[in-house]
């Protein structure tokens, strides 16, 4: 899948391509290797995944459905095809109920897919489950811990299962306990631990022993900032070479910081997929330019000493003439603001003024208006002294804005499932 092909419209074609590729892969693996080479296969390969839940599982005894009505279905994942390469952290984003957790649950065998296949490190999770699961680490959204087993014992068990050598065990466990600030809870049974500590333990259990593929379902939820920092650092340091991770999060900042690519799911469908930079370029509004002028008093205080009143007599004269100062300042503000507006219009003719206050202007600048960032910054720097600019920021569209665009798209196109 190329990054250009990352809109929902193209997905049918993608699914067809994926199907024929799966067919080739399963019918003649040698042929596949010749065509695409052993390197071409992603570590995680999800193909045409679909998950339907019956109405009964939604409403228990199904007392609300009439007998003669066909059972209703809830489609949680639709035609999801996605690959995660070695060295990659792929972020799955989406509002509540978008289908992210269901996808992960299928990948870990917790939920059976209605259709589609998942291969982890070359092993099918349905045909070759044991081998597939040996390579997987999983931090589920809801902590799955033994309540009468201690924090340390959980980590020891997982580390040993993953083949960590005895001599490395203590050092490794203490790295996680210290980094996540749960040392003092190490010997507590998890039933006596707080939600935050349990969350940190779930994350450590997924990571300890360096499994080849790690699935992290909202791992940082409820964590304090220092532990979150450790989590970010370990994720950024871990997934190089042959390992990879899939991460769901509601924090766009986190996705931007950790993920090499992100996919946005809306109502079970993957609506876009690409690097964060690519998605910002493609769907973002471009840049936001915010300029704050110096406070007018600061401009006066910066005027040379000789032009300021030197004696109390002069100060008195100045005070007596204060009636004239307000309109003068007001004129000055208008002139400075006008000069600034002219400057921005000259720099970015297609920019739109979004917000305007006496000393602060916010512009939206389209992507195409910026051909050279270096030139923009050089002109802004030069204008700083000429136009009494206190500070400015020129930043690209955030992932949050891209995400909201898709949420809006969803509202416009929502259909009954
Ligand atoms: N066992 C189930 N039975 C019926 N419906 C289910 C079941 N599990 C999930 N769903 C439905 O599938 C949809 C997708 O849920 P899922 O938990 O995968 O979303 P999500 O994107 O992970 O949301 P969140 O961010 O809240 O975790 C939801 O509408 C949910 O109600």
TrEMBL record:
For this protein's source organism, the top of the classification is: Eukaryota, Metazoa, Ecdysozoa, Arthropoda, Hexapoda
Q: Does the keyword Cell membrane apply?
A: no
Family annotation (InterPro entries):
AAA+_ATPase (IPR003593), ABC_transporter-like_ATP-bd (IPR003439), ABCA (IPR026082), P-loop_NTPase (IPR027417), R2_ABCA1-4-like (IPR056264)
Q: Does the keyword GTP-binding apply?
A: no
Q: Which UniProt keywords apply?
A: ATP-binding, Nucleotide-binding
Q: Which GO terms describe its molecular function?
A: ABC-type transporter activity; ATP binding; ATP hydrolysis activity; lipid transporter activity
Q: Which parts pass through the membrane?
A: none
Q: Where is the ABC transporter domain?
A: 44-292
SUPFAM superfamilies tied to this protein:
P-loop containing nucleoside triphosphate hydrolases
Under the heading Gene3D superfamilies, the entry gives:
P-loop containing nucleotide triphosphate hydrolases (3.40.50.300)
Q: What are the GO cellular component annotations?
A: membrane
* Entry protein name: ABC transporter domain-containing protein
């Amino acid at each position: 899948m190329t990054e250009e092909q990352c809109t929902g419209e193209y997905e049918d074609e993608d699914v067809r391509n994926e199907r024929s590729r799966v067919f080739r892969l399963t019918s003649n693996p040698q042929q596949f290797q010749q065509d695409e080479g052993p390197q071409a296969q992603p570590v995680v390969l999800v193909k045409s995944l679909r998950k339907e839940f019956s109405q009964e599982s939604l409403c228990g005894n199904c007392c609300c459905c009439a007998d003669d009505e066909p059972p209703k279905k809830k489609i949680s994942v639709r035609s999801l095809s996605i690959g995660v390469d070695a060295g990659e952290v792929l972020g799955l984003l989406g509002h509540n109920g978008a289908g992210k957790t269901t996808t992960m649950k299928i990948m870990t065998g917790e939920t059976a897919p209605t259709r589609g296949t998942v291969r982890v490190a070359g092993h099918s999770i349905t045909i070759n489950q044991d081998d597939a699961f040996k390579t997987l680490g999983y931090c589920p959204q809801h902590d799955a811990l033994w309540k009468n087993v201690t924090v340390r014992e959980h980590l020891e068990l997982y580390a040993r299962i993953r083949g960590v050598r005895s001599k490395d065990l203590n050092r490794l466990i203490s790295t996680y306990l210290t980094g996540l600030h749960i040392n003092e809870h190490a010997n507590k049974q998890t039933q006596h631990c707080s939600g935050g500590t349990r969350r940190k333990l779930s994350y450590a259990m997924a990571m300890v022993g360096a499994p080849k593929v790690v699935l992290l379902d909202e791992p940082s939820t409820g964590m304090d900032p220092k532990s979150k920092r450790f989590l970010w650092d370990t994720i950024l340091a871990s997934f190089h070479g042959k390992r990879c991770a899939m991460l769901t999060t509601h924090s766009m900042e986190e996705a931007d910081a950790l993920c090499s690519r992100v996919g946005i799911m809306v109502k079970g469908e993957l609506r876009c997929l690409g690097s964060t930079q690519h998605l910002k370029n493609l769907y973002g509004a471009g840049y936001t330019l915010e300029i704050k002028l110096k406070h007018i008093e600061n401009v006066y205080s910066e005027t040379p000493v000789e032009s300021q009143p030197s004696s109390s007599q002069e100060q008195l004269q100045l005070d007596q003439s204060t009636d004239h100062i307000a309109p003068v300042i007001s004129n000055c503000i208008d002139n400075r603001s006008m000069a600034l507006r002219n400057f921005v219009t000259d720099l970015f003719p297609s920019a739109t003024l979004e917000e305007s206050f006496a000393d602060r202007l916010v512009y939206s600048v389209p992507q195409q208006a910026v051909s050279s960032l270096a030139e923009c910054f050089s002109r802004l720097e030069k204008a700083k002294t000429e136009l009494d600019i206190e500070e400015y920021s020129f930043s690209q569209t955030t992932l949050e804005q891209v995400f909201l665009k898709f949420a809006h798209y969803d509202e416009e196109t929502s259909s009954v499932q």
